[in-house]
Amino acid sequence: MTSIVNLGVQLPGFLSKRELKQTLKELVQQEGKILKDLSLVFTDDDYLLEVNKQYLNHDYYTDVITFDYSVFPAVSGDVMISLDRVQDNASTLKQSYKLEFYRVVFHGVLHLCGYNDKTNDEQRIMREKEDLYLSAFVSRGTNEL
């Protein structure tokens, strides 16, 4: 089951919760796993900064934090996303907000599927996977899911 929660932010108008849930189920299946329990928590910079400090001892803003409760082959966890950071990333990267939104969501779920991004090689693989799923699920021309 996938739940989508907004804490102190308004969800983007383009977001179809039903379509996003189906997309993430398919992404996880393509990774050879089963989606069990997933919570997507959308919030702002201040809230995610406090989570980052409290649970990870990091004192900086981030776009996504993932708490992984998976037991192979089941994928379970919480993906917390700062919509402030997503908007800032989109602007910095000269990317649409919609495309960056889905990239960050996919990034968090890929962490739950076992991908990391600590080393350069891991970052390259993660980016390739993000691009793969963006191409599969998001039309680049129209940025439609």
Name the descriptors.
single chain, Collagenase (Catalytic Domain), alpha/beta, 145 residues, 49% helix, globular
What is the CATH class? Alpha Beta
Strand content: 15-25%
Strand line-up across the major sheet: 1-2-4-3
- The helix tally amounts to 5
The count of domains is 1
Overall description:
This protein is an alpha/beta fold. It has a single domain (2-137), classed as Collagenase (Catalytic Domain). The chain has five helices and four strands; from the N terminus they run βαβαββααα. The chain has helices spanning 17-30, 45-56, 83-93, 97-112, 120-137, and strands spanning 2-6, 34-43, 64-68, 74-82. A four-stranded mixed β-sheet has the order 1-2-4-3, sandwiched between helices. A hairpin with a 5-residue loop joins β3 and β4.
Q: What is the topological layout?
A:
Blueprint: E1 2-6, H1 17-30, E2 34-43, H2 45-56, E3 64-68, E4 74-82, H3 83-93, H4 97-112, H5 120-137
Parallel strand pairs: 1-2, 2-4
Antiparallel strand pairs: 3-4
Helix pairs in contact: 3-4, 4-5
Summarize, please:
This protein has helices at residues 17-30, 45-56, 83-93, 97-112, 120-137, and strands at residues 2-6, 34-43, 64-68, 74-82. The protein has 145 residues and is of the alpha/beta class.
